[in-house]
Every structure is written in C-alpha cells, then in structure tokens.
Amino acid sequence: MIVFFSSGLYLGHLPWAPGTFGTLAGLPLYLALSGLPVWAYAACLAPLTLAAILLAGRAEDIYGCHDDPRIVIDEVVGFLVSMTGTAPSLPGMVLGFLFFRMFDILKPWPCRAIDRTWGGGTGIVMDDAAAGVYAAALLHVVQIIW
User: Fold this and answer.
1) Is the pTM of this model over 0.85?
2) Could you give the CA distance from residue 98 to residue 117 in angstroms, rounded to a whole number?
3) Residue 94 reports pLDDT greater than 90
4) Per-residue pLDDT tens for 108-139?
5) What is residue 146's predicted lDDT score, i.e. its pLDDT?
6) 134: nearest Cα among 91, 103, 92
7) How many angstroms from the chain centroid is the CA of residue 55?
C-alpha cells in the first residue's frame, strides 16, 4: 500500500515524466475539494500533507534513495497547494499545473534548500509544497490581471 499511494497509484512507475503524471494524480483530489471554503480546503490539505510525508518517508526506505522519482505523492500535495483558493476552471487548472511544474523543476529558494537539507519524507514533500506556494501566488496574480 505504501508504494501504491506514494507512487500516485503507480503513476510514478511510468518510464517517462513520473513527476508530471504524479501532478495529474492530484487533479481528482483537487476537484473533490475545490467546492470547499478555503479554510476547509486547507483543513483537508493539512492531514493529506502529513500522510504524504509519512508515506514518502516509508517509500524512501523501500526504494533506498532520497526523493526517488517513483515517489510522486509530493507532486500531488504541491499541486493541491498551488490550487488553494482557486475556483475550478479549465484555464485555472492548466495554469496551476504548469506553474507548479515550473517551480517544482526550477526549485527557487527555499525549495532547493529544503530539498537538499531536510531529510526523509519531510524534505521530499515540503520542497514541493513550497513550489506550490510560488505557483499559487503566480496563479492568483494572473487571475486578478486576467
């Protein structure tokens, strides 16, 4: 079960772009939570993040290396963070997805520092959560301007 959930229902085992497909695994969860008020969305996101940290840490032990590409539950959490406070719309979801992937790949400060210095599941998940904060900020700015 640890591998099943930490790999985003095995999407992380795809031979190409596991992080991208892992991010897509967050889409159904976002749609399920998107009708909630922001406070309730955040209240659901907090235990999901904790569960992701625990699962990613256990998966790291199973795979034998830090932030193995097959672990994509961190992308699910990062995408959910990036969509916080955003009403579901196709343009919003596409932009949220693209912005999150951009910041997850570029890893601006403090994402890279978190990735390099925090160990275990906490480091695996929290650098993506930080990338999600950047993506959420940019998405909200674009939605205000647009």
Assistant:
1) yes
2) 26
3) yes
4) 999 999 988 999 999 999 999 999 999 999 99
5) 85
6) 103
7) 14
Q: How far apart are the first and last CA of the chain?
A: 42
- Predicted confidence band of residue 140 (pLDDT cuts 50, 70, 90): very high
Spatial CB neighbours of 107, under 8 Å, sequence gap ≥ 6? 115, 127, 131
Nearest in space to 78 (alpha carbons), one of 60, 54, 103, 110: 103
Among 90, 87, 74, 83, smallest CA distance to 129 is for: 74
Segment 30-51 shows an average pLDDT of: 98
- Find, among 12, 25, 27, 8, the residue nearest to 83 by Cα: 27
**DSSP single-letter state for residue 13:** G
Where helices occur in the chain by DSSP H, the ranges are: 2-6, 18-33, 38-63, 73-82, 90-106, 111-117, 120-145
Q: Which two tokens stand for residue 112?
A: 């890279």
Contacts of 120 (CB under 8 A, 6+ apart): 53, 56, 57, 60
In one-letter notation, the amino acid at residue 82 is: S
Radius of gyration, CA atoms only, the chain: 14
Give me 8's structure tokens. Answer: 């985003």
The identity of residue 123, as a single letter, is G
